[in-house]
Amino acid sequence: MKKRLLIDYKDIKPSCKDLEVIGIFNPSVIKYGDELIMIARVAEKVKQKKENTHYLVPSYKENKGLMVIEVPKSKEYDYTDVRVIRNHKKNYLTSMSHFRILRSADGINFTFNNEYIMPNNIYEEYGIEDPRITKIDSTYYITYTAVSSCGMNVALIKTNDFIKFERLGNIFHSDNKDCVIFPEKINGKYFALHRPNISQFGKLDIWTAESSNLIDWGNHKIMLKARVNYTDSSRVGAGAVPVLTKRGWLVIYHSADHDSRYHLTAMVLNKDDPNKIIMKSKRPLLEPTEVYEKQGFFQNVVFTCGLIADKDFLNIYYGVCDDSIAYAQLSWKQLWENLEEV
Amino acid sequence: MKKRLLIDYKDIKPSCKDLEVIGIFNPSVIKYGDELIMIARVAEKVKQKKENTHYLVPSYKENKGLMVIEVPKSKEYDYTDVRVIRNHKKNYLTSMSHFRILRSADGINFTFNNEYIMPNNIYEEYGIEDPRITKIDSTYYITYTAVSSCGMNVALIKTNDFIKFERLGNIFHSDNKDCVIFPEKINGKYFALHRPNISQFGKLDIWTAESSNLIDWGNHKIMLKARVNYTDSSRVGAGAVPVLTKRGWLVIYHSADHDSRYHLTAMVLNKDDPNKIIMKSKRPLLEPTEVYEKQGFFQNVVFTCGLIADKDFLNIYYGVCDDSIAYAQLSWKQLWENLEEV
Fold first, then answer.
1. What angle do CA A70, A124, B170 make, to 5 degrees?
2. CA B334 to CA B320: how far, in whole Å?
3. CB atoms closer than 10 angstroms to residue A102
4. Domain carrying residue B212
5. Could you give the ipTM of this predicted complex?
6. Of A64, A282, A342, B177, which alpha carbon lies 20 to 30 A from B80's?
7. Pairs across A and B, CB distance < 8 A
8. pTM score, whole prediction
9. What is the tally of structural domains in chain B?
10. Given an 8 Å threshold on Cβ–Cβ distance, is A174 in contact with B196?
11. Cα B54 to chain centroid, rounded
C-alpha cells in the first residue's frame, strides 16, 4: 500500500480574521466531469485573547453569523479533552467546522478557490462535520453531521454543480453520525448506513435504514455491532460511500479501540440485501503507522469519508489526527487478500 | 377535575407461571365501534429464587420466547434504581413489559380477554413499552418503545381490527421514546412528535418529524425545549395523540423535574404548522396529589398515552407510579382556563 500526506492544515487560510485553522480532515471525494471534487471539513478556533481568564469558543447564530462565546476557565468546566469543553449543564466544541471545496485534475494536487459551505441554521450552531458525497442519477447528495445545542443530527444537502447547494433538512435525528447513502436503489428503496449514539443500552454500532425519497428514512436495523476484544471494540462507523463490486457492496469503515486508536477496516455486503455481511477484513486494512497518522491534534486517528475505486486501484482519502488529509492507494488484489468470508 | 384510580396492578394475572405482574400503566385508548379499546403496558418480573446470590431478569429471545438472565448480586452491578440494573458493560431492565388489550362499554369498567401483544424480535428483547394509538382512515397505528441491547427504538404496529397486528419495523432509531402520530395529514404530510435521548449536547426535548408513508420519517425539527427552572426542567415528552380543536392541535405532554416528579401539561399547536406553539399551560394541568399518584413502584409519576375528547369533557387515562392506571375528567372550560397564548 502506498501512503502519503496530501494536505497539511498549515497551508489553509482561515475563513475570517478572528479565526485560525487547526485542521483540514475527513474529506469526501467524487468524480465530476474531468475533475475530482473534494469536500473537506475545515476546523477553526477563535484566536485567544492575551488575558487568560476565558476560553473563546466559536459558534454560529442564525442571521448573525459568527459569534464568540466566552467560557470561564474555572473548575466548573472540564478542559481535559482538546475537542470539547464539558460542563454538567452544557458542552461546547473548542473549534467550529465548515466545508471547503477543492478541485483536482490528477487526484493528488488540489486547488482552493474560496469555495465554502458554511453553517447556516440552528442545527449547525457548533459547525458541520464529516461530509460524504453520493451521486444518484445526475444529482450529488452530501450527508453530514450538524452539531449544535440540539445535538448531533445527520443532515442532507443536494447539488447538481457544486456551486449552488440546497439544504434538505435533518434526515436522522440526534444523536447520529457517519451516514452514507448507497449510490443506487436496492429492491426499489434507497439505502443508508448510519451510526446512532446510544446512551443507556446498546453500543456504537452501524445501522441500516431505507427510504423512498432520500428525505424520510425508516426500517432501522442494526447491521454491524462493535466487537468486544477486537480492534473495533469501542465504536464502528461507516466511512466512504459503498462501492458495488463483483462480490457485493464494498464498505470501508472506521473502528476505534478503548484507547481511541482508529483503524480502517473493510466489509462486503450482499448486493441485494445490504443487511447481510458476506466478507470482513481478517485484520485492519489501514492503521496509524506514519508520524502524520500517529501525532497531531488528536493522535492515532485515521478516518475516511471518501474513496475513488478505478479499474486497478482503490484510492482512499482520509483524515489523520483530526488535522490533515492523507492518501493511500492499494490494489484490488491487496483488498481481496485482506478479506475473508463470514 | 374528577380523578380516580381505575385499574390496580394487583388485579392483573401474569402472562406465565414464572412471572409476576408488578404494573399495568401508561395506557393508550381509542374508540372502536361501540367499544373503548385500551392497550396497556403490563410489566412483569421473574419470581426470584430463595437463594439470594443472583437477581433474575426476564428477556425475550427470538424463536425461544421468555429467557431468564441471572445477574450476580455483586459490587460490579448498581442496583439503586428499581427499574434498571446498571453495569459499565451492560444494563438490564428489572422487569419486561408487554401489551394487554382491554375493552370497555362505558370508559370506566374494562374487561380482559387474554388478548396480548408480546415482544417478538431482537429489538424487543427487554420488552415493549408506552403504546399510543392513532386512527388514520380505517387503520389503527400503534407507536411504542422497543427496548433491547440495541437501544430504545420507536417501532410501529398496524391493525384494522385489534385482533391481527402487523409489525412495520423501527420508525425512529435508538435512543428515542414518546412518539405520537397526528391523526391526519398536514400540508400533504404525516406528522409526528418524538423524543430523542441526547447524550452529549442538547436535552430531553420534543421534536417533530414528517413522513409521506408513515414508515419513513425525516425533516426532524426541535419543537419544545425542556425549560430550566420550570416544572419541566429535566425532560419533556409527548403524551396522548394530538386532538384537533377550534384553536389548533391540543397536545397533553409529560414533564419531569430534577427529582423525577412528573406533571401533565398542555400546549396548542398551529393547525397548519405544528412546529408553532400558540398556547401553553400557565401551570401544570395535572400533578401527583392523590396517594396512588404519589406512592408506588416509582413515586410521583403521572404519565399519559391516551385521551378521549368528547363534546363536554377531556377524559385522560394515565399511568401512576409505574404501577397502576388512573383516570381524570376535566371540562373544556377548565382546559382553556389553564392555557395562555405564547
1. 130
2. 22
3. 22
4. 2-341
5. 0.93
6. B177
7. 140
8. 0.94
9. 1
10. yes
11. 30
